[in-house]
Design goal:
Elements: H1 4-8, H2 11-17, H3 20-33, H4 35-38, H5 43-56, H6 65-68, H7 72-91, E1 95-96, H8 98-108, H9 114-125, E2 134-135, H10 136-148, H11 150-164, E3 197-198, H12 199-212, H13 220-227, E4 232-233, H14 235-244, H15 246-252, H16 265-278, E5 285-289, E6 297-301
Antiparallel strand pairs: 1-2, 3-4, 5-6
Helix pairs in contact: 7-10, 8-9, 9-10, 10-14, 11-12, 12-13
Length: 302
């Protein structure tokens, strides 16, 4: 069934919004790269399986970073896959460093940039050393904000610095490159004025940014609600608030609420099936018994 959104937009605009061309180009590229194998079962089946994997979110597994971050759906799929694969770390209470979390990310995306991992860790650790330990849930929600809203946060950093310097932030330039190469960002020195910037002015700048940005931004209404109780805030204080806000998490739609973070019945069921299928089976041994009558008999024992 077509969604109401599909019916309200012109065809080309809807296709562009859903990045259909990105997936068509990738599918054709995969088809040409594996044409010898695909010829055995047909092109139609290949496209069916490809777009089923896109719908299920498994299409980003072991792909290059430029593809993983190419669309909002890809980013959300990667976040959900990372959570489902490694949630047992949080369930067991394990604490890891930024480097160790980066190794986990590279298991799913071999060329995942360390820079993004470090930025996510900085949201959690603030002024602590980067080799400090972090819980899975703290890192995951910080990583979600940093990864999914990467371009938005680049512009927010510029706005924050402009406000600190007393400049007009309306001249901020929104990032336009989606090639996966992220500009080096100097962490805002929010220790200069310890109390940060005026929250209401900061929000007005963010609202203007979201209105003109071509990239994913958190819902303005939720950001306004989040900042409504603050008079002033620092840059990393804002990032931490974003990471902890469950309304923004629900709007993004990749991860469950924090209270349900370690609950995944579907994955648990699959793991149980896998465990039962691969668990060693008991072998039957033949044991010789010698009854008093002298007649030997064989009995099976497990």
């Amino acid at each position: 069934m077509l969604s109401p959104e599909r019916l309200s937009l012109p065809g080309p605009e809807y296709l562009a919004q859903r990045h259909v061309l990105t997936y068509m180009e990738d599918a054709v590229s995969q088809l040409l790269e594996n044409r010898e194998d695909i010829s055995q079962y047909g092109i139609a089946r290949f496209f069916t399986e490809y777009f089923n994997s896109v719908r299920q979110g498994t299409h980003i597994l072991f792909r290059e970073f430029s593809f993983v971050q190419a669309t909002p759906h890809n980013r959300a799929s990667f976040l959900r896959t990372f959570w489902r694969c490694f949630r047992t770390l949080g369930k067991n209470g394990d604490l890891l460093t930024a480097q160790e979390y980066h190794c986990l990310l590279q298991l799913l995306c071999p060329d995942f940039p360390m820079e993004l991992t470090q930025k996510a860790a900085r949201i959690v650790l603030m002024d602590d050393a980067m080799d400090c330990l972090m819980s899975f849930s703290d890192f995951l929600f910080a990583f979600q904000i940093q990864f999914y809203y990467s371009e938005f946060l680049e512009s927010v950093a510029v706005i924050y610095q402009d406000l600190l310097a007393g400049k007009n932030p309306n001249t901020v330039i929104v990032p336009t490159s989606s090639s996966g190469q992220h500009r080096q960002r100097q962490p805002p020195n929010d220790c200069s004025p310890l109390d940060g910037v005026d929250a209401s002015v900061f929000y007005q700048c963010l609202e203007s940014l979201c209105d003109r940005s071509k990239y994913s931004c958190p819902p303005s209404a939720l950001v306004k609600e989040m900042l409504s109780s603050a008079q002033r805030l620092t840059f990393y204080g804002f990032l931490m608030a974003l990471a902890k806000d469950q309304g923004i998490n629900r709007a993004l739609g990749a991860l469950p609420d924090k209270g349900d973070l370690f609950v995944d019945p579907e994955m648990d069921q699959e793991l149980e099936k896998f465990s039962q299928h691969h668990s060693p089976r008991k072998k039957k041994h033949m044991v010789l018994l010698k009854p008093e009558s002298g007649a030997e008999s064989q009995v099976e024992q497990e």
